[in-house]
# Entry
Amino acid sequence: MNINLTLFAQAMAFAIFIWFTVKFVWPPLMRAVENRQKTIADGLAAGERGRQELELASHRSADVVREAKQRATDIIAQAEKRAAEIVDEAKVSAKEEGGRILTGAKAEVEQEVFRAREALRQQVADLALAGAAKILRREVDAKTHADLLASIKAEL
Amino acid sequence: MASGTELTPTSYMSHHLTNLTSSVGDSAFWTLHVDTLIMSVLLGLISFGFLWWVVRGATSGVPGKRQAFVELAIEFIDEQVKSTFHGDRHAFVAPAALTVFVWVLMMNTMDLLPIDIMAGVYSVLGLHNWRSVPTTDINTTFALALSVWLLMIFFNVKVKGLGGWIHELVCTPFGKNPVLWPVNILFNIVEYVSKPLSHSLRLYGNIYAGEIIFLLIGMWAATGLAGTFFGTLLGAGWAIFHILIVTLQAFIFMMLTVVYLSMAHESH
# Structure
């Protein structure tokens, strides 16, 4: 182990290698690494932005769905209301119709009754007349006693 | 291995611990450790060439396996530097830390090459003394530590100004009182001397000791059947453990570099 000129030669070599590394090895790789870091950072930022947008969109879609549900519920409620109204209206009109039919039927029945009574009365009058005619035996002239017969008939 | 001479433990050890030298001057100082130089420069060229090759085609899109590996290493270093150094680390400190870590790690890892097989390979190439691990040469670790030390002084002056640095040398850590100036100066001298020493000797000592232990295990393996058996077992165990040491020492060396440089950037 003796110190000699080798020391200076080695120091020279060392200086040259340091210079070489400082100049040619370190900067290009650092540039590449830094560019990649930037790319990755940009990508991460874009991913984050995308995530936020997704979140917003999902909020929005949830809102839309909620609104649509609300509207559907409203429409159903309206429809139910309307259906109930229609049923009610139908009931009312059916009742009215029924009433009308009933009234008509009653009037008809009354008319029938009246007509039957009228026919009955006619027949009774005829019978009475025939009876009276039989009793009186030609005594009574139908023509001359028409007023009397009519008044009897009206009384029956 | 030198043929003709008898193989003793001493010659075995010294064979493995002798550098291939080349003299460029008269005195002992003017010699170069050719093996250290070639191995370290070769490892540096391979590793930084690899990094450069990967980084040149680096994409900021999805990285391939090769790029991901390099990014992993570089970001590991970057994280360490970020936690210690609070300034513009990309300008110098972080890439310097990367250089230190990668280079020292590569040089340390040569310790895992099987010494005797490598010696055989080198002797086929005609190299009789060739040490594979540049960090077992104190010249390498001192070169690194002293370069960091000079950078430390450079950044001290650059950030605080020459006056600011001298003020710090004189007035910290004990106080501004003129009575305390000599103590401060003494303290700072000790600090400035001990930093490169501990920095370089820690790495050198760990890796050198690791190599010595491999040599001792290799010597035991040459003593007979039992020695071969236990030598193999221990050699494997030590190599596995050494993976940890190699990485840890490279990491410690890098962290100390970062700490020293960031201390130079911060005023007390």
Observations:
- Chain B touches chain A through 46 residues (CB under 8 Å).
- The two ends of chain B are 56 Å apart (CA to CA).
